[in-house]
Amino acid sequence: MIQLLARISNWKFILFFFLATAFLLYLFIQGQNEMSAIAGESVTLIDLWKSYDLARINAFFEQIKPEGRAIHQRLTGVEDMVFPFAYGPLFILVFAFFLKGIFGNDSKWLLLALFPIWTMGADYMENFNTLEMLKSFPKTTEAMANKGSFYTEMKNLSSLIRNVLFVLLGITWIVKKVKYRS
């Protein structure tokens, strides 16, 4: 695994996954704009919430109407099922790139690059739960909302750790490159 990470963490793979991530983000923004037009005000996809409860979910589903729920279901069931396979490898490859630059191609520290898998897993659990809530509405239960909120909180926590790790590794990589050139 270490050799594979060292070998594929290059600009070609990173660029591919960056473009895939950017394209999917564009689709999310388009879909969210469509939902906002239906609701008559700006709305945010459930995936971007910090947490929620049953009352908030029910109010949101009412606000976006059946047409908005269909859009949210498509975004969650299609685009957001592909999205983790775009941003996950992107972060894994960037982390591996930084880590091999800091510690070398054979370092066990390269395995730290796999951390974004936690975010991907939480994202999938959140997606499945969101689809369950959308399909069951108006019979969405408190248990579904609580479970979904937990998955969202886990995804948000792992995303925060991932982003901090990205900044720390990037700074460390830059400092090492500057010191090497001096």
Provide a compact summary of the structure.
α5 (116-136) runs antiparallel to α6. The chain is 80% helix and 0% strand. It has 182 residues and is an all-alpha fold.
Strand segment tally = 0
* Secondary structure: helix percent: over 70%
Q: N-to-C terminal Cα separation, in Å?
A: 33 Å
The secondary structure category is mainly alpha
What does this structure look like?
With 182 residues, this protein is mostly helical. Helix content is 80%, strand content 0%. It has helices at residues 2-8, 11-39, 54-82, 84-103, 116-136, 142-181. Helix 2 (11-39) runs antiparallel to helix 4 and helix 5 (116-136) packs antiparallel against helix 6 (142-181).
Topology of this structure?
Blueprint: H1 2-8, H2 11-39, H3 54-82, H4 84-103, H5 116-136, H6 142-181
Helix pairs in contact: 2-3, 2-4, 3-5, 4-5, 4-6, 5-6
Keywords for this structure?
182 residues, 80% helix, mainly alpha
